[in-house]
Amino acid sequence: MTKPFYITTAIDYVNGAPHIGHTYEKILADVIARWNRLNKKQVFYLTGTDDNAQKNVEAAKEKGFPIKEFVDKNAKQFEKLCKEYNISNDYFIRTTSQEHIKKSQEIVSEVYKKGLIYKGTYSGLYCDGCEAFVTEKELTNGNCSEHNKPPRSIKEEAYFFKLSNFKEQIINWIKKDKPIIPEKRANEILSRLENEELKDLCISRANAEWGIDLPFDKKFKIYVWFDALINYLTGAGKDEKYWPAEVQAIGKGINWFHTVIWPAILFATNRELPKKIWVHGYFTVNGEKMSKSIGNVINPLELLEKYSADSIRYFLVRENSFENDGDFSEEKLKSRHNDELANKLGNLVSRVSTLAEKYGLEKTEIEIDSKEIIFRIEKNIESYHLDKALNEIFVYVDKVNEYVQKSKPWETKDAKSLYEAVFAIKNIAILLSPFMPKTSEKIAEIFNFLIDIKELNKPIKSTKIGEIKKAEILFKKIQ
Ligand SMILES: [Zn+2]
């Protein structure tokens, strides 16, 4: 058996409902998963929830729910998010599952037996928002820069993982294998590794009521990040058969965990390392930081009452480059939906199908050169520049619209120019399918072709008058 293309997202805290950032990450990974399936690769796509975090406990208390009930209820929202947005994950992992508890304890024991875990005292700062031990140096005016709150000072008996042992190995891995994209995120990590002391990592929590028992000392729970990272192994199929991951999509805030702590765990247990860590930026809403107190958090499930999943998928990917922070605004979503999806793509399909019903399609030599454009689209997807790939697809849409405008088949009744247009629409639908799967299927149905990579640039059939039917509207304009 060849190993499938294994792709993961981060697992989400279930202390609240999903927001647009969660949605974006799952869509990014979904486009890559679908692209690889389109290219006949076997794919295994993993996403899920981090149920064990202490902040889930705090949130449950605040809302007056028993923790298990609260976590189950919120995790369902994330599963629903995947379903409603047509995320093609092959598995949804929850860190409260028995299989994950078992795997985490197995790995921690493995590290312990190697003599890489020792007992000591942790005395220092802890940010509950990050679920992380932090140092004075990382603070901005005494606050965690991620959460804008002062961390708590704690002192407890603790177990430590000899993270410091792995510093050179991690630096070499980042420099030689270049696993982190974009490069600026690799440089951030390297500069910290090269300029600061890498301290051993506290991997236990004392007096915690929620979480996974530390297998060799049950008075303690496993520090939540240590167990959370292991989800990628738990979810990798029987005996971790899909590991290593080809790509792991994460947000910039958890880069350190994935490119320092995670590789150290893998080095410590003689496992292979992921091939790529794909780090995306954060989202603001209308230019402001997303926050519950401002009340500007967008619920992606509610957004679906007004826009289709495909429109939102298109907007989020097209509007933002993963390398930088993105911004969400409904005005921009609406204008891309109306101007690009309805006016450009929707009108093209509607116009060409209407004329093809009247005049049929007649085979001809293709004039619009698509090879160069297809090449650029493929290159952009393969280098994870999905926004650029979508931009190129719409350059193609524009070309076809111009062609139709120029050749005026409504006047000439020329079935050959309609053939040319449908040929290009087929290419567009195939290339668009990882981004907008439902829309592509609809277009394929209208013109009776298959969404298959082998069909790219392949001739289509001539059709008689009436064989293709005028399409229903693909995108209704939103006022
Ligand atoms: Zn924090």
Write a structural description:
The chain has 479 residues and is α/β, with parallel strands linked by helices. It folds into two domains: 5-303, Rossmann fold, CATH 3.40.50; 329-455, Isoleucyl-tRNA Synthetase, Domain 1 (Orthogonal Bundle), CATH 1.10.730. It has helices at 20-38, 54-63, 67-84, 98-113, 167-177, 183-195, 224-234, 255-268, 300-303, 309-319, 330-359, 371-382, 386-407, 409-412, 415-432, 437-447, and strands at 5-9, 12-13, 43-50, 91-94, 117-127, 132-134, 139-140, 143-144, 152-161, 180-181, 201-202, 204-206, 220-222, 247-251, 276-280, 283-285, 288-289, 326-328. Strands 1, 2, 3, 4, 10, 14 and 15 form a seven-stranded parallel sheet that branches. Strands 6-5-9-11 form a four-stranded antiparallel sheet. Helix 10 (309-319) packs across helix 11. The longest helix is centred in the last third of the chain and has 30 residues, at 330-359. The N and C termini lie far apart (52 Å). The mean pLDDT is 96. The structure holds zinc ion.
SSE topology:
Elements: E1 5-9, E2 12-13, H1 20-38, E3 43-50, H2 54-63, H3 67-84, E4 91-94, H4 98-113, E5 117-127, E6 132-134, E7 139-140, E8 143-144, E9 152-161, H5 167-177, E10 180-181, H6 183-195, E11 201-202, E12 204-206, E13 220-222, H7 224-234, E14 247-251, H8 255-268, E15 276-280, E16 283-285, E17 288-289, H9 300-303, H10 309-319, E18 326-328, H11 330-359, H12 371-382, H13 386-407, H14 409-412, H15 415-432, H16 437-447
Parallel strand pairs: 1-3, 1-14, 2-3, 3-4, 10-15, 14-15, 16-18
Antiparallel strand pairs: 5-6, 5-9, 7-8, 9-11, 12-13, 16-17
